[in-house]
Design goal:
- The chain is built from 2 helices and 26 strands.
- With 338 residues, it is mainly β.
- The strands form 7 sheets. A 4-stranded antiparallel sheet has the order 1-26-25-24, with no helix packed on it. Strands 2-3-4-5 form a 4-stranded antiparallel sheet, with no helix packed on it. It has a 4-stranded antiparallel sheet with strand order 6-7-8-9, with no helix packed on it.
Length: 338
């Protein structure tokens, strides 16, 4: 008969054998398990962003809208907060109240005084004069607040003061006017009477050179920001035309561009760019640090189809010329009053 000690040893050995078998059958250890993830931060941000959008005018789903925006391209505000928009296909300028009511419409396709052909960017000075880039007529036209044509300057060509498909306008602090002379790959500066004052750029991708400049915007300190469609970047210049910096490259990742077209600045100097063929708007700090990306491709609220011109109103909200959808959308950026 085995001794008590032998029985104890035997039981201990059997227990150890069972433990070894259990360990062999158990699944390999891995990372500690976690609860199933909830909605991603990106999904939550997209939902919050969608709630900030609204269609101001020209909803393509509503053919009754009386503004008849067709391939809306340029947007700008006057001192009263009214929004001016160009319809490049129907050659007109429309004046829209903050609540979306159409206040006036003028222009019409043609090459005569007051007529427009493919108008793009525009700007409104403190006295209500409206400057329009009459793109396919290769000129700038100036209108009084009622839409009466006052003067036109520019003609097709490559010399100083001549234009080739001008796209956008921006008013300098001293009242002079910057024009993106797109097919001449330069920016020109004009006096209010159309007299050419300066020019810079030149075809290329080196600092200070330009390739299809489109949107332009002027900061309060006179710094000029230029969007280059073919270089897929933003450059900024001193008021004298000296290059100060640049950012961007071709691509679809955040911070990259695919044929950018429009640009606007807010009161803090942040830069908004319509990344046209990525169908989105990107927001950058004044030195080019990416802050936010909004918009997706489509025709719903908050979706975009080849966005073009941009403008920020006096409340700090962003208005987008949603060109491919022939409408204007508003992105609420300002915090609601407490």
């Amino acid at each position: 008969m085995p001794a008590e000690g032998d029985r104890t040893v035997g039981r201990l050995g059997a227990l150890l054998a069972l433990l070894a078998l259990a360990a062999a059958c158990a699944p390999a250890a891995g990372p500690a398990s976690r609860s199933p993830p909830g909605p991603s931060a990106a999904s939550a941000a997209a939902t919050a962003t969608a709630e900030r959008w609204s269609i101001l005018a020209g909803d393509v789903r509503d053919s009754r809208w009386y503004g008849h925006l067709s391939d809306v391209t340029g947007v700008a505000f006057d001192a009263d907060g009214n929004l001016y928009a160009t319809g490049s296909r129907n050659g007109n300028v429309q004046v829209i109240a903050p609540d979306g009511r159409l206040l006036a419409r003028w222009g019409g396709l043609g090459g005569g005084p007051g007529q427009l052909d493919g108008p793009s960017g525009l700007a409104v000075d403190e006295e209500g004069h409206v400057y329009v880039a009459d793109t396919l007529n290769h000129r700038v036209q100036v209108f009084d607040p009622s839409g009466r044509p006052l003067v036109a300057w520019g003609r097709y060509g490559h010399g100083q003061g001549e234009l080739a498909f001008p796209y956008a306008l921006a008013l300098a602090p001293d009242g002079s006017i910057y024009v993106s002379d797109t097919r001449n790959d330069r920016v020109q500066l004009f006096a209010v009477d159309g007299h050419p004052l300066d020019q810079w750029g030149g075809s290329g991708d080196a600092p200070g050179q330009l390739s299809r400049p489109h949107g332009i915007a002027v900061a309060r300190d006179g710094t000029l920001y230029v969007v280059e469609e073919l270089n897929n970047r933003v450059q900024h210049f001193s008021a004298a035309g000296q290059p100060l910096g640049r950012w961007g490259q071709y691509g679809t990742a955040p911070g990259q561009f695919n044929y950018p077209r429009g640009i606007a600045l807010d009161a803090e100097g942040n830069v908004y760019v319509s990344d046209s063929w990525n169908h989105r708007i990107q927001k950058f700090s004044p030195d080019g640090r990416l802050l936010e990306v909004v918009g997706t491709h489509g025709a719903g609220v908050g979706q975009l189809q080849r966005p073009e011109g941009l403008a920020v109103d006096r409340n700090g909200d962003l208005y987008v010329a949603d060109g491919g959808n022939s409408r204007l959308q508003k992105l609420t950026l300002a915090s609601p009053a407490p």
